[in-house]
Specification:
homodimer; about 325 residues; mainly alpha; Farnesyl Diphosphate Synthase; two-stranded antiparallel sheet; 17 helices; 2 strands; globular
């Protein structure tokens, strides 16, 4: 008898969706192979084995099953979503010149930037093949739009992140691009493939969109208040990398002339000394922007729960509702 | 009256397809825009304006028109093919650390590698949206397979290019990936969108495949015997970049032990001094591999012409047949 107490919603979801996740993992292993270019499975295995919570594919599987889908294509779509996510990570690590991801050296460090760029392209192409197999043009439309939004958001971030004029509206657009677009596409296609009524599909989209925004805001918050042992990130990484995220945007908005000069020097010009992070944290504390950011995240999680609450109750729906709470509980 | 003598087949093709190319250029300008991330059109405009011959989209437009297509979607597909090509160039320049393309500084030099990676991703996503609009699952299948073959070929090249065990079979696989897969997809989708009989679609695929292989072999040949003023490349770039291409593969196959040691040192180990290129050229001359490579290119061009010769004669078909000759005439 299994006596483990499974309390976290993403673990309950993984348990509930175990057969589908197994099928998806088998499909992923099959499709990330390459007869002729062994470098491809080397790189992808490194990343896929590192784990991650398979959150995005679980959103697709959960949405489809919640809507009563009994065909085979939610497996394809879950693998599609995971491939797009993995490809994005590979390219992000090149763009950010990262050395670590999920506590392991990144692919660009282990192999080279070339491999990360090209294997990412391979996974994009593979994801595209997987979704074409579903034969649903609407699914293809949703996922191709998501892919464009993701890339546009990433480019926007390149220019917006170090620009002090970036306000909460621009921040939200970046967040939708880098995170929420794939969450909302993941849930929406689950409903579409199940042939759900439009109102349900719309509710699934809203749930994914709001959940993704909450998720990213929490990520950005943890960067300033997190426990580096738990998050695998160092406090202040975003500050050092000159990424303008919500806690700082809220502080910049209320900054005195002197404080503004500090942000211009450290974020826009990137002239930082060792004591600057401490001063930045004191400015966030002065305006209590971590609490305000936390409140925003809770607001988005609540909206996610409300959206899903309009769908017929069942165990998967209820676990997904709990997941929205869990995403913001990571803050504590 | 226009009194210019238009003799080159790609120029005759551009003249014949002028209205379609105009429509495609308008579509490209529309779709490479980004309301929120102005960096995107900056980068793409730099590359798209630099020109190139629009060879790949002309293959799609020509194939569709030759097959009697009178709908709107060949314009989408031509733009799709050009976007995939442009995205590939952006990523290639990052991978090759190139500083020049078509006689202009590359995007990665003008902006940064980050922009090249992410704008490339954006163009891939946009190309995907464009083809989804055609509503043809078969077209989507062909182009998603081509995208996977392209990426796989590029990764294969990473490992195969500097490995002296790379033989003509592996070389051909790399060439299909990096060049011929997009040529053959470009011609095949033209036939598919026109609803042509299977035999015609197959002939169009073969034409594109053989033309692409001939094109790439000629490119690799010109690297060793070209006039740098005409090609915009320096003689021996591939040698210096340690890329094992057909002229060298043919020389390695016949190498004495001493010659083999030379190739191992210069290509596999990358230990090159100033006089090595001259010695490499003397080895190519010793085995007459440039002539043998040229003969291979002509053979592929002939196969391309034979394939297209099975289709009903018309002016576009005949220009495409001439194009196959022109591709190898670049050698002279």
């Amino acid at each position: 008898m299994d006596t483990r107490v499974i309390s976290k919603p993403h673990e309950r979801l993984a348990e509930r969706l175990a057969p589908e996740l197994d099928a998806m993992n088998a499909l992923i292993r099959e499709r990330m192979a390459s007869e002729h270019a062994p470098r491809i499975p080397e790189v992808t295995r490194h990343l896929v084995d590192a784990g991650g919570k398979r959150l995005r594919p679980m959103l697709t599987l959960g949405s489809a099953i919640m809507c009563g889908y009994d065909g085979p294509f939610h497996i394809n779509l879950a693998a599609t979503v995971e491939f797009i996510h993995t490809a994005t990570l590979l390219h992000d690590d090149v763009v950010d010149e990262s050395g670590q991801r999920r506590g392991r050296p990144t692919a660009n460090l282990l192999w080279d930037n070339k491999s990360s760029v090209l294997v990412g392209d391979y996974l994009f192409a593979r994801s595209f093949q997987l979704m074409v197999e579903t034969g649903s043009l609407r699914v293809l439309d949703i996922l191709s739009n998501a892919a464009a939004t993701i890339a546009e958001g990433e480019v926007l971030q390149l220019t917006a992140a170090q620009n002090l004029a970036t306000d909460e509206e621009v921040y939200l657009r970046v967040v939708r691009g880098k995170t929420a677009a794939l969450f909302s596409a993941a849930t929406e296609v689950g409903g579409v493939i199940a042939g759900s009524p439009e109102a349900h599909v719309k509710a699934l989209f809203d749930y994914g969109d709001c959940l993704g925004i909450a998720f990213q805001i929490v990520d950005d918050l943890l960067d300033y208040q997190g426990d580096s042992a738990a998050t695998g990130k160092n406090v202040g990484d975003d500050f050092r990398e000159r990424k303008l995220t919500l806690p700082v945007i809220k502080a910049v908005k209320q900054a005195t002339a002197e404080e503004r000069a500090f942000w211009i020097r450290t974020i826009e010009k990137g002239q930082q000394s060792d004591s600057d992070l401490e001063h930045a944290l004191s400015l966030l504390a002065k305006y209590d922007t971590l609490a305000a950011t936390r409140a925003d995240a809770i607001g988005w999680a609540d909206r996610a729960k409300t959206a899903l609450g309009t769908l017929p109750a069942n165990d998967v729906r209820d676990t997904l509702i709990d997941l929205a709470d869990y995403v913001v509980e990571r803050i504590n």
